[in-house]
Amino acid sequence: MTPRRLTPHRLAQQLGPACPGVPAYRWLADGIRLLVADGRVLPDTTLPGERALTAQLGVSRTTVARAYADLVERGYAEARQGSGTRTRLPGPPAPAGEEPFGLPGRTLSGDAPPTVADLTVTVPPTVPGLVAAFERAIAQLPRYLAGSGYHPAGLPVLREAVAEHYAARGVPTTPDQVIITSGALAGVAAVLRALASPGDRVVLESPSYPNSIAALQRQGSRPVAVPMIEDGFDVEGIVTAAAASRARAALLIPDFHNPTGHLLDDDGRALLVRGLARAGVPLVVDETPIDMALDAPVLPRPVAAHGPAISVGSCSKSHWGGLRLGWVRAEGPLLAAVQQARLSLDLGAPVLEQIALADLLRHPQPDTERRAALVHQRDSLHALVTATLPGWEAQVPRGGLSLWWRLPQPRSSALVTAAARRGVRLAPGAAFSPDRSGLEGYLRTPFTQPVKTLERAVAAIAAAWAEIT
């Protein structure tokens, strides 16, 4: 592997202008530390030599040497004899964590990852600027400490930022129409609790997101599954099923659907909104994947721009899975019902995280490199599987985080078991079925892992597939 090296010019670009009133060595050390902490400079990257960086930045060599020494002392770099100063992260490696995924018989331990790969995880790399946003949030935190710390509807600053986010996408929104939740799943659960009672029917696509299915089933609602068609959403089928079943809600994922990656176009959105409105069935839209456009052309307008819809959003894919915040955008009397339902689940989201997310929404950092890496991983995974596993077919989505494979034989669950023995975690097609059965001819594979990991995973999957077929 070729060692990573950071040129003086590139580092100067990433650092930006010096901060007035801050000692030069401190500005340089803190700037590099934030670049490493945010993942914009990877660990084990060789920093520019002191002479070269001195010339590039127009500072003294003593300044650069002192900044590098400060980074070493704080654990963000190490000086290697003969090979310069390399970046690192302080402390031992932390557990990567695992996506909460309600598969039968699976416990969520957070322990060491499997030997090869966990392909149940659909979480992209962290967005740049997260650590800096938290540092700015800590500086703002004292303003809130005199209060109780409870903000059941969310901090005003974050509700305003989310409202601005919707308005910029063509959906005029006031902060009073936004409720902050502890993630999209908490938002979905609150909305379903407000709309439906045990025994009531709720329309879903099939396949659909497993944790949303679980939330619906836990409150006793009855799913009405509408199969997706080859090229996407069966809008007519959804409207017909909602009216015929007298459903209390329809819960859909029209933006880079999880797991298929399909994107509902503007015409389909307009038909869906009008049809469900005529049927008197509230439309709940899970927008969690909406910001994961990879190489899509002009995106359709949000569903709420076409008419009545309850929007549920999250920053888990757009920013970081560990930033457990989401929101519900709704109008009219439903807002109060959702808020009451939400209070039966929790009393509010953490304050510091809300301050940080408001900062991130208002000051987004370019994430071109992150998206380019996801495109490369998506295309590499598709090429690997089609070359290694004849008969496996998947459309390449223009957004989202996974590929949805049609298998030559309906052996999805058997494959999951065989792959697990080889150190690869997979989710069977049945996990995405609203009635937890069927879809044995399908398998989801996220492309959020590095290409080398995907290569090892595909080799193990191919061996497992050969064993069971």
UniProtKB/TrEMBL annotation:
Query: Which domain of life does this protein belong to?
Result: Bacteria
Instruction: Extract the GO molecular function terms from the UniProt entry.
Output: transaminase activity
Q: Which Pfam families match?
A: Aminotran_1_2 (PF00155), GntR (PF00392)
Domain HTH gntR-type per the UniProt entry, residue ranges: 22-90
- Which keywords does this Swiss-Prot/TrEMBL entry list? Aminotransferase, DNA-binding, Pyridoxal phosphate, Transcription, Transcription regulation, Transferase
> Per the record's keyword annotation, is Protein transport included, yes or no?
no
The UniProt family comment states: In the C-terminal section; belongs to the class-I pyridoxal-phosphate-dependent aminotransferase family.
Q: What name has this protein been given in UniProt?
A: PLP-dependent aminotransferase family protein
Q: Which organism is it from?
A: Arsenicicoccus bolidensis
